Amino acid sequence: MKKTTLLPLSALLFCALHLNAQPKLDTKPLALEGDIASHLVAGVDQFLLDELAASVAKRSAYWDRDFSSHEAYVKSVEPNRKRLAHILGLRDARTAIAGLSFNARTDAPALVGQTDRITIHAVSWPAFRDVTGTGLLLEPRGRDVVANVVAIPDSGQIPEQIAGLALGLTPELQYARRL
């Protein structure tokens, strides 16, 4: 390469590197003390708390509930239920079920536990298309069923723990078996 070409190219490269370190117009360098990730998390947390607080005031604009009858109420909240299902990604039509299937195998019966108050069975049900739900059916012994409850454990728990079948939770946290 000729010296006449190399000199202007070197000068251009030097200027470009020097200018690259300069802040853009109407900006300034980020100068946070401490962990930047912690600042980001704290900012997101504050934003979400502010949005949650503001949602209470905005809630009435999204709900038009009709309390005149059960049927009227169900009809009045249907748009909200559809919107929530969409937000949660529940866009497939649910499969109608006639009942739960007991999950029994040759090495594991459907009955997974019982006390003097409840019997507990492993069950499954069709959810949609090829997706199946599984869980535990807790039925009262010696008394009538008064309600159907879906008890969902915390992310760090398993259904057997809230039903009192597995170790890991103190008895007062085993709420499913007391329902």
Give the strand tally.
4
Structural class given helices, strands, pairing? alpha+beta
Biggest sheet overview:
4 strands, antiparallel
In the predicted model, the low-confidence regions spanning at least 5 consecutive residues are none
Distance between the termini: 86 Å
Portion in strands: 15-25%
Could you say which overall geometry the principal axes of the C-alpha atoms support? elongated
Gyration radius, in Å:
30 Å
Q: Roughly what percent helix?
A: 25-40%
The number of helical runs is 4
The residue-averaged pLDDT reads 84
SSE series:
HHHEEEEH
Structure description:
- With 179 residues, the protein is α+β, with helices and mostly antiparallel strands.
- The protein is built from 4 helices and 4 strands, in the order H-H-H-E-E-E-E-H.
- Strands 1, 2, 3 and 4 form a 4-stranded antiparallel sheet that branches.
- A hairpin with a 2-residue loop joins strand 3 and strand 4.
- It is elongated.
- The model has no long low-confidence stretch (mean pLDDT 84).
